[in-house]
Amino acid sequence: MIRTLPSHRRKILFAATTVFAIGALGALSTTPVHAQTGWPSKPVRIVVPFAPGGTTDILARALAPDLSNALGQQFIVDNRAGAGGNVGADIVAKSPGDGYTLLMGTVGTHGINRALYAKLPYDPIKDFVPITLVAAVPNVMVMNADRAKAMGVKNVQDFIRVAKSNPGKMNMASSGNGTSIHLAGELFKSMTGTYMLHLPYRGSGPALMDMVAGNADVMFDNLPSSMAQIKAGKLTALAVTSAERSSALPDVPTVEQAGGPTLKGYEASSWFGLLAPAGTPPEIVNRIQQEVAKSLASPAMKERLMAQGAIPGGNTPAEFAKHIDSEHKKWAQVVKVSGAKVD
Q1: pLDDT, tens digit, for every residue of 202-238?
Q2: How far is CA 124 from CA 159, 332, 340, in A?
Q3: Largest alpha-carbon pair distance within the chain?
Q4: Cα angle for residues 59, 62, 67 (degrees, 5° grid)
Q5: CB contact at 8 A, 116 and 177
Q6: Which residue has the higher pLDDT, 13 or 340?
Q7: What's the N-to-C CA distance of the chain in angstroms?
Q8: pLDDT, position 334
Q9: Range 146-170 average pLDDT
Q10: What is the mean pLDDT of the chain?
C-alpha cells in the first residue's frame, strides 16, 4: 500500500528540495578554477626572456609572491635570456597550453621583433594567448655620471654636440637586439644624425653594470631598472623617452622637450605583460588576469611600481590583445624610419 504525504508536508519537502538545488547551482557557479580544473596542482613557471636585474625581471618577481599566495602554488621566475628576448619567448611558445608556463612578454618580443628580424622562431600572435598588460614604462636616456661630467654633457643638446664631434667614438648599451631600449636609441640616432656603436647585452642588468663601471657611454634604459642608480648619483638622467614627463622624475624633460625641433615627435615607451601558450584554457587565463589585476590595484603594489616610474596595468585579455596588435603596427613604422638592423 502506497502512502502519500499530506499536502502541507509535500509543500515543505518541495521547498526544501528547491532551496538545496539552487544552493548547489550557486556553489557550482562560484567554484574557483582550481576546483573545476585541478589547476594549479604544481608550481607555475614565469619565463623572463632577459637576464636578472632588468625591468622585465623586476615586474615578474614583484607579481610572483602575490600569485603564489592567491592560487596556492609557487610561481617561479625562470630567466631565459638571448636574442633580444626571442629565446625565452620561443620556449613558452613551444610549451603545453596547460597554465604551467607563462611568459613575461615585452614590447620587444610582441611588438618589435616581428618587424626587426627576418625570421622569428615563434609567431607572436598565433603562438600565444594574451593574459594582461602588467605595466607601461618610459625609457630614460642615461649616462655614467662621471663620464657625462668629463665630457661636459649636462643635457640632450650637449650630448648631440659631443656625439657629432666624435663620430663613431661613442657607444650605446642596450638590453639586446630588438628591445625597446635598442630601438629608442636607433630612433634617436636617425633623428639627430649621430652615430654610436650598439652594444647589445643579455638584459638591462648586465648592461647597467657596464654603464655604472664606465664601459658604455649611453643607454635608453627602462626607467624602473635604472631608477636606483639614478637616485644613487651613479647615472645621470638626461631625458625620458615618453610623450610626457614621468611623475617619478618630474624634473627630467622628455627627449622631445630637451632636443628641440630636431627631436619633435620623438616617443619610444615600453610595456610588459603576461602571456600563455596558445591553447591555454580560457578559465585559467581569466583567473590569472583577475589575480594580477587585484595585485596591481593594491595600494602597496601601485606605490611600489609608480615610485619606479611604472604605470600598473591589469586590463582584460581582449584589451591586451588589441594593444599588442596596435603595437605591431607602431613599431614596424619605427623600425622602418630608424633603419634599425639586428647586429
Answers
A1: 999 999 999 999 999 999 999 999 999 999 999 999 9
A2: 36, 14, 20
A3: 110
A4: 110
A5: yes
A6: 340
A7: 92
A8: 82
A9: 94
A10: 89
Q: Which of 127, 135, 110, 83 is nearest to 332 (CA)?
A: 110
Q: Report which of 331, 301, 327 is spatially closest to residue 314, judged by C-alpha positions.
A: 301
For the stretch 123-154, pLDDT in tens is 999 999 999 999 999 999 999 999 999 999 99
Judge contact between 84 and 200, C-beta under 8 A: yes
Residue 274: all three cell numbers together: 603576461
For 268-292, the pLDDT digits (tens) are 889 999 999 999 999 999 999 999 9
The 8 Å CB, 24+ separation contacts for 235-238 are 235/142, 235/143, 235/144, 235/145, 235/211, 236/142, 236/143, 236/144, 236/145, 236/148, 236/149, 236/153, 237/140, 237/141, 237/142, 238/141, 238/142, 238/143, 238/148, 238/153, 238/155, 238/156, 238/159
Q: What Cα–Cα distance (Å) separates residue 108 from each residue in 35, 150, 153, 315?
A: 36, 33, 29, 19
Q: Look at strands 218-222 and 139-144 and give their pairing.
A: antiparallel
pLDDT value, residue 26: 41
Query: To which H or E segment does residue 62 belong?
Result: helix 55-71
Contact (CB, 8 A) for 231 and 306: no
Q: Could you tell me if 234 and 144 are in contact, meaning their C-beta atoms sit under 8 angstroms apart?
A: yes
CA separation for the pair 89, 110 (Å, rounded):
9
Beta strand 270-277 with 128-137: parallel, antiparallel or unpaired?
antiparallel
Cα–Cα dist 167/90, whole Å: 37
pTM beyond cutoff 0.90: no
Q: Distance (Å, rounded) from C-alpha 44 to C-alpha 102?
A: 8
Going by the DSSP 8-state scheme, the letter that residue 254 receives in this structure is: B
